[in-house]
Amino acid sequence: MSLVAFLLGQLRARGPMNFSEFMEHALAHPDYGYYRHKDPLGVQGDFTTAPEISQIFGELIGAWMADAWQAQGSKKAVLMELGPGRGTLMGDALRATRAVAGFHDAIDIRMVETSPTLRAKQEAHLKNMHPCLHWQEEIGPLPRLPLFFIANEFFDALPVRQYVYTQKGWCMRMVAEEKGELAFKLSSPFLHAPVSSSRHGTVKEGDVIELCPMAEKIIHQLAQHIATYGGAGLIIDYGYSEPHHGDSVQAVHHHAFCPVLARPGEADITAHVNFTALARSARHAGASPHGPITQADFLRKSGAQLRAARLCSHASPEQQKTILEGLERLLSPAQMGELFKVLAITPQSLMQAAGF
Ligand code: SAH
Questions:
Q1: What are the residue ranges in the chain where pLDDT is below 50?
Q2: Cys-Cys link to 163, which of 30, 192, 194, 289 (CB 3.0-4.6 A)?
Q3: Residue 193: its pLDDT value, please?
């Protein structure tokens, strides 16, 4: 059976499902979900991410984490990565922090990954790099220790609900069966707006609001932990920071956009991250959000150019070209520099987060 056959079976038995349920099946269905069976990264895959483009990315993040760890007293701590892809970022971060006195001995590393394919790649890549590496499918209960976490292009993969403003009021976007195929449909109108009007401003017909309850819940848990036990988090993703109306859901297959319902289980489906909502959730949990700032700003302030110059000084002309092109992709406003944003979370006692 394919995922489409499974979804059609569900729709016939139960009627239309909301878009968030569809997205969850498409990405995370245990048998057919996109992240369950594919390595989506790289030239052969569907998309490429910052750590796959340049080692500088993971190195600077590693240095940022070690710095935050030192600033909070160099205690025993958990270092967690959400959605670690091929393990490249963690590998670069660990290599870059080897010389930070006591850091590797103090950390217990937790990799949160649902994909067996990617977990195997992470294990192979990180083998022998650290004695305390653990994998888990969800965040679960955390030990009472400071938590340092990193999430690069993780939150965009969580299912969103979409609300559409119509003449009759706010409706939810649903997925239904139409002539044997998957099709969008709207629910009956709701009595109330999905968020308070102070958050969505004036609306007109056709406006869309996206909510990602799973992302807000995860941030709440992690931020509450950081507020209580210390630590820090970095969330990096494409997204927006103002109140926003718009449908940001997109599907990508082999580096090209495709219609969202066309290839469930085969195409990557993502939504832009609402950084305002994540920052609010962190604040409600008692922690301090910093930013979001653009990826370019964050990397520049963290010393990206200096690091590139140092790498170039030991490199062949060909390698130098690769290093500088990679850095340009991460920093350029036309590429990842401005679309990607960075949000940091710290305990309230830490007034300043490095780079923000
Ligand atoms: N951070 C990596 C990979 C980004 S792709 C990089 O920058 O290269 C998204 C990652 O999140 C993949 O590792 C995917 O398997 C994982 N993932 C997606 N949904 C998840 C979920 N609900 N729980 C845990 N991991 C998930």
A1: none
A2: 194
A3: 83
CA–CA distance, 291 with 341 (Å, rounded to integer) = 8
Is the CB of residue 293 less than 8 Å from the CB of residue 340?
Answer: no
Q: How far is the CA of 153 from the centre of ligand 1 (A)?
A: 7
What integer pLDDT is reported at residue 195 of this predicted model? 85
pTM for the whole thing?
A: 0.96
User: Residue 109: what pLDDT?
Assistant: 98
Give the Cα separation of 337 and 341 in Å (integer).
Answer: 8
Residue 284 contacts residue 348 (beta carbons within 8 Å):
no
Task: Please tell me the predicted confidence (pLDDT) of residue 292.
Answer: 96
Question: DSSP letters along 124-149, please?
Answer: HHHTTT-S-EEEESS-----SS-EEE
The Cβ of residue 55 has, within 10 Å, a number of other Cβ atoms equal to 19
**At 14, which amino acid appears?**
R
Give nearest CA residue, ligand 1 atom 11: 83
Q: Which long-range contacts (CB under 8 A, 24 or more apart) does 244-249 make?
A: 244/274, 245/165, 245/200, 245/201, 245/203, 245/207, 245/208, 245/209, 246/207, 246/208, 246/210, 247/162, 247/208, 247/210, 248/210, 248/272, 249/19, 249/23, 249/160, 249/162, 249/210
Query: What is the pLDDT, as a whole number, of residue 192?
Result: 84
pLDDT for residue 1: 73
* Backbone φ, ψ for residue 241 (5° rounding): -120, -5
Ligand 1 atom at minimum distance from 40 CA: 5
Q: What is the dihedral of CA 149, 285, 210, 87, to 10 degrees?
A: 10
Which atom of ligand 1 is least distant from the CA of 47? 5
